[in-house]
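Quick note —
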Amino acid sequence: MKKQDYSEEFSKIVDNTKVIKKEVVDEMGKSFIAYAMAVNVSRAIPDVRDGLKPVHRRILYTMGEMGVFNDKPYKKCARIVGDVMGKYHPHGDSSIYDALVRMAQDFSINCPLVDGHGNFGSVDGDSAAAMRYTEARLSKISGELLKDINKNTVNFYPNYDETEEQPRVLPANFPNLLVNGSDGIAVGMATNIPPHNLTEVCNGVIALIDNPEIEIDDLIEIIPAPDYPTKALIMGTSAVRHSYRTGKGGVVIRAKCDIEEFDNGKSRIVVTELPYQVNKAKLIMDIAELVKEKKIEGISDLKDESDHQGLSVIIDIKKDFNAQVVLNYLYKHTQLQISNGIIFLALVNNEPRILNLKEMLYYYLEHQKEVVTRKTTYDLEKAREREHILDGLVIALNDVDEVIKTIKESIDKQEAILNLTSKFNFTEVQANAILEMRLQRLTGLEIEKLKEELLALKEQIADLMDILAKPERILNIIKEQLEYIKNEYGVPRKTEISIDYSDINLADLIEKHDVVISLTHQGYIKRQPLSEYRSQRRGGKGITAHRSKEEDYVEIMFVTHSHDDLLFFTNSGRVYRMKAYEVPEASRQAKGRAIINLLQLNETERVTAIIPLKENANGSLVMATKRGLIKKTDLKHFESIRVVGKIAIKLLDDDELIAVQLASGNDEILMASNEGKCIRFNEKNVRSMGRDTQGVKSMNLADDDYIVDMIVLKEGYKILTISEQGYGKRSEISDYRLQTRAGKGIKAGIFDDKTGRLVNLKQVSENEDVMLITQDGIIIRTPADSISIIGRNTKGVKVMRLEDGDKVVAVATGEKEEESDEILSEETSQTAPTLMHDTFEEFDEETNKDTDEE
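Predicted structure written out below.
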């Protein structure tokens, strides 16, 4: 039989039956969505206004109807559950009783809404006694949730069989959603709102009233973290702050534990507070299981000594075992420390929404504005009704004899009302009140009381009308309410906020100062404060800056700020990133830390350039290779550098990356080779490329020549050249004429056996010091302005005296340090002038003749 024939056959079998064709998938989808919304709105998610789910709201409202307030006798829970189920919540007695029990547990919520009498469970996970044995009544603070509910403050709607009316929300004179929290699993979503301190939350709402534009971070200062009824410790607040800002986050809660030590060498751990919702009995069983399976050592005994005075779990530690080590293991592997997720999901206008802290307080405040407005309107209507009656009574008493005569002449009540309304112009309500007035009201004293009441009532009406006319008065009423609530019911914070050291931003703990970063040829790096280097006269012997092994020497050295980012470029063309303060600090005599312990370098990889970056730096990185290639790449390509590094430049097999500089977009570049050739060209000659590219030719090199340095020129600086034997000079930038990229270049100076080959080419200002480093690890720091300014094609002056066999291998510049004779060593003070004299003797016309030879 074909599919379309089913309905026809079915119609033949069942007379008068209408068959509607439906796709199963469509019908299931619609039905499931309807079911999901019903569960989300009617069961699992609390309302943002009163913080209650329907079952909790129905329990409290029913108990209020029954009159079981905190000043009345207890009633059997079975009676309460029966009324709730019969009138408003036909979903089974167990769900109602479970909800009632939780509202009575002082270890589940901060402000219990039900005052329970009997066994209502424990932190050991014990369930409450059967409802036929337990009794309950509303707690005192529950009265604040129900207060003025009969004054038309909230809307009502019919119950399931339309025989009763139930509130859609309670007036809620305090922000119950945050104070007591809520959790629930709906369809496709979940809520997990932790409890908070009543005083802090009330202060938060008051702060929002005072400043509607208040920032979330300011509210977080008032409400710093959840406050749990079981106390314990909150470890750090970064995740909590994130949840307050976004509506989702988490919190780490740790048990409060004390370590007690004894004279016999033994110790014990005493647990006095547990994380929220941790089952104490299960926790003890878990610890015992770890000991039994020998997953933890050092525990000799485990006892639960908790009583009515408080919780106390004793963990005895064996002799010769460190109690703190055992405790740290327990934090990691048991529920002595837990991580709780936070999801601020609540119903806003019957729609589930994830809210931040300010939004939750805002919607509560809006609810209170409506409640106060409706209550004031209700009181105004009642006052006006009473005023109307009193007006009639006062008029009647002023002419009481005639009124009594009119009543006596009437046949019945209806005629009396008709006669009074027609003769004295009373309304029917006033006439009815006159007929019901007792004779004692005719006394002179009673008449005065009526007049006083009428006068007070008129003042009250004027005040109520003023409240409705001025929104600021409504806000003041809410503030007064909250002040009363926190003064009457507020308690100090229970949960201590502790420091989570992983939560601390390490940068905040690092002193901000200038540092010197040095790296040796064999890969030992260290950080030192710049202040450790003493300024010396030109020609001094210097001090030891980096004590390396005999076969090692300092290769890279520069001055930066402790909080700057460092980009590490290697000979293989890869780049790595770390903060300057992450480089280990070491003394001048120490060799430093092997850089392979800090960066994940390959076996043949070594760092050849380090670029310090200030915060929010922009521009491009210009990279030069040993074989004369140059490449420019935008800094944005180096923002996210992984631990394993990234490719910075694609190299040929026999090439290496030797220099990297930061450029702005219209800079000029000066490059120098080992044989003393240099070339100056504009960076626009080098087009911007991606990271994984080779670059273009920078200078036409001889076969045995190679690039030793590259700088991006700055206006107002001089060009400094330093040779292997410590000769140096400063020259004007204009001495190095501008060319196009890929030329042969011009001479950077005279370099021979006496001077040695060119080591570095730097740019310096008169406000800087120059530091020279030799392969033996000796450093000298001398003011840049003490080095003579002479022509480009010259030999220069002796900047540093070297021991036999030693040679300069690196040059760095830094901020100028004031020269002081007091800080110079006796040996240096005696030696420096002589060396300067010797140096200038070497400065003659023949060796330092300025030429334009290329």
